[in-house]
Amino acid sequence: MKNLHAILISAVMIFSGAFANAQTRGSIWERQDPAKGLYFGSSSAGDIFTRHQEAIAAALIGHAMRTNSSITGITESSSSASGSSTLSDVSTSVNSGFCGIEIIEYKDHGDMAEVLVRIDSKGSDYTYELKVDSASMESDGKITFRSNISLKLSDRSGRMLLYFISQDTEEDHLSKISFSSAQTK
Protein backbone atom coordinates (compact mmCIF):
# COMPACT_ATOMS: atom_id res chain seq x y z
CA MET A 1 0.00 0.00 0.00
CA LYS A 2 2.91 2.32 0.74
CA ASN A 3 4.10 1.81 -2.86
CA LEU A 4 0.70 2.72 -4.29
CA HIS A 5 0.69 5.96 -2.32
CA ALA A 6 4.20 6.78 -3.59
CA ILE A 7 3.09 6.17 -7.18
CA LEU A 8 -0.01 8.31 -6.81
CA ILE A 9 1.97 11.08 -5.12
CA SER A 10 4.54 11.09 -7.92
CA ALA A 11 1.83 11.37 -10.57
CA VAL A 12 0.15 14.22 -8.73
CA MET A 13 3.47 16.04 -8.28
CA ILE A 14 3.93 16.20 -12.04
CA PHE A 15 0.78 18.20 -12.57
CA SER A 16 0.31 19.84 -9.14
CA GLY A 17 1.48 23.29 -10.23
CA ALA A 18 -0.96 23.35 -13.10
CA PHE A 19 -3.78 22.08 -10.85
CA ALA A 20 -3.11 24.78 -8.26
CA ASN A 21 -3.09 27.42 -10.98
CA ALA A 22 -6.30 25.98 -12.47
CA GLN A 23 -8.18 26.32 -9.20
CA THR A 24 -7.58 30.07 -9.11
CA ARG A 25 -9.02 30.65 -12.61
CA GLY A 26 -12.52 29.19 -12.43
CA SER A 27 -11.29 25.85 -13.67
CA ILE A 28 -13.23 22.93 -15.04
CA TRP A 29 -11.36 20.55 -12.70
CA GLU A 30 -14.27 20.33 -10.23
CA ARG A 31 -16.41 18.76 -12.99
CA GLN A 32 -14.28 15.63 -13.17
CA ASP A 33 -16.10 12.50 -12.08
CA PRO A 34 -14.16 9.25 -12.52
CA ALA A 35 -17.28 7.21 -11.70
CA LYS A 36 -18.80 8.65 -14.90
CA GLY A 37 -15.56 8.40 -16.88
CA LEU A 38 -14.84 12.16 -16.73
CA TYR A 39 -11.20 13.06 -16.09
CA PHE A 40 -9.47 16.42 -15.81
CA GLY A 41 -6.01 17.15 -17.17
CA SER A 42 -3.92 20.28 -17.34
CA SER A 43 -0.55 21.44 -18.60
CA SER A 44 1.54 24.59 -18.55
CA ALA A 45 3.82 23.63 -21.48
CA GLY A 46 5.22 26.43 -23.61
CA ASP A 47 3.36 25.89 -26.88
CA ILE A 48 -0.37 25.31 -27.38
CA PHE A 49 -0.03 21.95 -29.17
CA THR A 50 2.13 20.46 -26.40
CA ARG A 51 -0.19 21.92 -23.71
CA HIS A 52 -3.12 20.20 -25.42
CA GLN A 53 -1.34 16.83 -25.63
CA GLU A 54 0.04 16.97 -22.07
CA ALA A 55 -3.39 17.84 -20.68
CA ILE A 56 -4.86 14.77 -22.40
CA ALA A 57 -1.93 12.70 -21.09
CA ALA A 58 -2.66 13.92 -17.53
CA ALA A 59 -6.30 12.88 -17.82
CA LEU A 60 -5.33 9.49 -19.26
CA ILE A 61 -2.80 8.93 -16.46
CA GLY A 62 -5.56 9.63 -13.94
CA HIS A 63 -7.76 7.03 -15.66
CA ALA A 64 -5.00 4.43 -15.96
CA MET A 65 -4.03 4.76 -12.30
CA ARG A 66 -7.58 3.83 -11.31
CA THR A 67 -7.90 0.76 -13.54
CA ASN A 68 -6.05 -2.44 -14.37
CA SER A 69 -3.15 -1.74 -12.03
CA SER A 70 -0.47 -4.37 -11.56
CA ILE A 71 2.02 -3.27 -8.92
CA THR A 72 5.16 -5.06 -7.89
CA GLY A 73 7.44 -3.89 -5.13
CA ILE A 74 10.55 -4.83 -3.22
CA THR A 75 12.18 -3.59 -0.07
CA GLU A 76 15.92 -3.91 0.40
CA SER A 77 18.30 -2.92 3.14
CA SER A 78 22.06 -2.85 3.09
CA SER A 79 25.01 -1.52 5.04
CA SER A 80 27.80 0.64 3.72
CA ALA A 81 31.44 0.64 4.82
CA SER A 82 30.67 3.53 7.20
CA GLY A 83 28.10 1.38 8.97
CA SER A 84 25.05 3.39 7.91
CA SER A 85 22.09 1.42 6.64
CA THR A 86 20.03 2.15 3.54
CA LEU A 87 16.41 1.19 3.07
CA SER A 88 15.10 1.16 -0.48
CA ASP A 89 11.41 0.82 -1.34
CA VAL A 90 11.08 0.24 -5.09
CA SER A 91 7.85 -0.33 -6.97
CA THR A 92 6.66 -0.61 -10.54
CA SER A 93 3.12 -0.16 -11.75
CA VAL A 94 2.08 -1.20 -15.24
CA ASN A 95 -1.36 -0.42 -16.62
CA SER A 96 -2.57 -1.06 -20.12
CA GLY A 97 -5.87 -1.29 -21.86
CA PHE A 98 -8.20 -0.12 -24.57
CA CYS A 99 -10.33 2.99 -24.35
CA GLY A 100 -12.33 5.59 -26.17
CA ILE A 101 -11.41 9.25 -25.65
CA GLU A 102 -13.76 12.17 -26.16
CA ILE A 103 -12.80 15.75 -25.32
CA ILE A 104 -15.76 17.30 -23.51
CA GLU A 105 -14.25 20.74 -22.87
CA TYR A 106 -10.94 22.41 -23.57
CA LYS A 107 -9.70 25.76 -22.26
CA ASP A 108 -6.41 27.47 -23.02
CA HIS A 109 -5.48 30.36 -20.75
CA GLY A 110 -2.32 31.28 -22.69
CA ASP A 111 0.08 29.82 -20.13
CA MET A 112 -1.99 26.80 -19.12
CA ALA A 113 -4.41 24.41 -20.82
CA GLU A 114 -7.20 22.42 -19.20
CA VAL A 115 -9.18 19.57 -20.63
CA LEU A 116 -12.18 17.59 -19.43
CA VAL A 117 -12.10 14.20 -21.12
CA ARG A 118 -14.56 11.31 -21.18
CA ILE A 119 -12.59 8.08 -21.16
CA ASP A 120 -14.62 4.98 -21.98
CA SER A 121 -12.82 1.88 -20.71
CA LYS A 122 -15.08 -0.25 -22.93
CA GLY A 123 -14.04 1.70 -26.03
CA SER A 124 -11.56 0.35 -28.56
CA ASP A 125 -10.36 3.42 -30.48
CA TYR A 126 -7.08 3.68 -28.55
CA THR A 127 -4.61 1.51 -26.67
CA TYR A 128 -2.67 2.93 -23.75
CA GLU A 129 0.23 1.70 -21.68
CA LEU A 130 1.29 3.45 -18.48
CA LYS A 131 4.41 2.46 -16.59
CA VAL A 132 5.40 4.07 -13.29
CA ASP A 133 8.68 3.24 -11.55
CA SER A 134 9.23 4.82 -8.16
CA ALA A 135 11.67 4.44 -5.32
CA SER A 136 12.15 6.02 -1.94
CA MET A 137 15.49 5.60 -0.21
CA GLU A 138 16.57 6.37 3.31
CA SER A 139 20.26 6.79 4.07
CA ASP A 140 21.66 8.23 7.28
CA GLY A 141 18.26 9.67 8.14
CA LYS A 142 17.80 11.45 4.78
CA ILE A 143 14.90 10.29 2.58
CA THR A 144 15.08 10.77 -1.18
CA PHE A 145 12.47 9.99 -3.80
CA ARG A 146 12.49 9.44 -7.56
CA SER A 147 9.88 8.41 -10.09
CA ASN A 148 9.69 7.78 -13.81
CA ILE A 149 6.38 7.80 -15.66
CA SER A 150 5.89 6.82 -19.29
CA LEU A 151 2.61 6.83 -21.17
CA LYS A 152 2.09 5.50 -24.69
CA LEU A 153 -1.14 6.07 -26.61
CA SER A 154 -1.74 4.31 -29.94
CA ASP A 155 -4.62 4.10 -32.38
CA ARG A 156 -6.28 0.84 -33.48
CA SER A 157 -3.68 0.21 -36.17
CA GLY A 158 -0.89 0.40 -33.57
CA ARG A 159 0.44 3.78 -34.74
CA MET A 160 1.74 5.68 -31.73
CA LEU A 161 -0.06 8.99 -31.27
CA LEU A 162 1.50 10.14 -28.02
CA TYR A 163 4.51 9.24 -25.94
CA PHE A 164 4.92 11.07 -22.64
CA ILE A 165 7.87 10.68 -20.26
CA SER A 166 8.29 12.36 -16.90
CA GLN A 167 11.21 11.97 -14.52
CA ASP A 168 10.97 13.38 -11.03
CA THR A 169 13.66 13.47 -8.35
CA GLU A 170 14.36 15.66 -5.35
CA GLU A 171 16.46 17.98 -7.55
CA ASP A 172 15.04 17.69 -11.05
CA HIS A 173 11.58 17.64 -12.58
CA LEU A 174 11.84 16.74 -16.26
CA SER A 175 9.06 16.08 -18.76
CA LYS A 176 9.34 15.18 -22.41
CA ILE A 177 6.50 14.55 -24.79
CA SER A 178 6.51 13.38 -28.38
CA PHE A 179 3.57 12.72 -30.65
CA SER A 180 2.56 12.21 -34.22
CA SER A 181 0.61 14.77 -36.21
CA ALA A 182 -2.58 12.78 -35.63
CA GLN A 183 -4.89 14.21 -32.99
CA THR A 184 -7.09 12.39 -30.54
CA LYS A 185 -10.82 12.79 -31.19
Please sum up the structure shown.
The chain is of the alpha+beta class and 185 residues long.
Give a verbal description of the structure.
By secondary structure, this protein is of the alpha+beta class. The protein has two helices and eight strands. Strands 1, 2, 3, 4, 5, 6, 7 and 8 form an eight-stranded antiparallel beta sheet that branches. Strand 6 (142-155) and strand 7 (160-169) form a beta hairpin.
Fold topology:
Layout: H1 2-23, E1 38-43, H2 48-66, E2 70-79, E3 85-108, E4 113-120, E5 126-139, E6 142-155, E7 160-169, E8 173-179
Antiparallel strand pairs: 1-4, 2-3, 3-4, 3-5, 5-6, 6-7, 7-8
| End-to-end gap | 35 Å
Number of helices: 2
Oligomeric description of these chains: single chain
Q: What integer value in Å does the Rg equal? A: 18 Å
The secondary-structure class comes to alpha+beta
Spans of at least 5 consecutive residues whose pLDDT stays below 50 are 1-24, 180-185
Q: What composes the largest sheet?
A: 8 strands, antiparallel
**Average residue-wise pLDDT:** 75
**Helix share bin:** 10-25%
Number of strands: 8
Based on CA inertia axes, which overall geometry fits? globular
Strand content range: over 45%
Order of helices and strands: HEHEEEEEEE
